[in-house]
Amino acid sequence: MPRDGDTRHGVFPEADREIYAAAGFGRAAGLGTRPAILVIDVQYRTVGDAPLPVLESIARYYRTSCGEYGWRAIPGIAAVITAARASGCPVLYPHVAPKTSSDAGRTGQKIPSLMDVPETGYRFVEEVAPGPGDILIPKRHPSAFFGTPLISYLVDLGVDTVLLTGCTTSGCVRATATDAFAYNLRCGVIKEAVYDRSPTSHALNLFEINAKYADVVPAEEAIRYLAHTAARRQAAGERAEGVPLQAVVPQRAEK
After folding, report:
1. Within a domain: 8
2. Are 206 and 168 in contact (CB under 8 A)?
3. What is the CATH number of the domain that holds 154?
4. How many structural domains comprise the chain?
5. Using CA atoms, how far apart are residues 194 and 171, in angstroms rounded to an integer?
6. What are the residue numbers of the active site?
7. Is the pTM of the predicted complex or chain greater than 0.90?
8. Which range of residues forms the domain containing residue 58?
9. What is the pLDDT of residues 11-38, one digit of tens each?
10. Is the Cα dihedral 142, 148, 151, 154 positive or negative?
11. How far is CA 45 from the centre of its chain?
């Protein structure tokens, strides 16, 4: 089977995997030549103010917290951001904008707890906070594309590939991957750099995303890809050229 994120240990039954394979899902699409990093919703509202088991974090900090599962992803996100900045790759921060009563809509009806996050919850997690030159994209819906200027920035930057980090795997990451696919962008979801409040939902959605919309790639491969794009840009004297992932790292054989 193609790589599919953290979907081992029977989370996605082998019989279902066989169905997907027979239907032709899960083919690696590869990455393009002009990447950008999206750091999606990595705010204290999604991890809590300090690492705690998820239920404790929900009780103590924010009902929207993913607790320890979010904190486990922070080092991977930080490593990808560091590599991106070193390579000259654009880093954009789609993030949840503070909500007012006028923003409630169906969100407020379906998930009222999303409307009750205090102002402190909207701060960026310090370890992965935006830096000079990074682009902030406030959003009010799951997809980083819906109702935001994100696609305009990507067009202006000449981006053909987005690498997704952040949360939640089943919500805003998946919605963003789906829209990136619809815009005909190449898309990678970095396995160690995305998180969710439910490990089961996280694993199943990584499998689904990899099957249909994006390539789920390990952080090590993504970092190597970014480093290689920097070397190629320097050699060619170009501002935003890279190479496909397949040219950087060997593809793992299907099992």
Report:
1. no
2. no
3. 3.40.50.850
4. 1
5. 11
6. 172
7. no
8. 14-247
9. 788 899 899 999 999 999 999 889 999 9
10. negative
11. 16
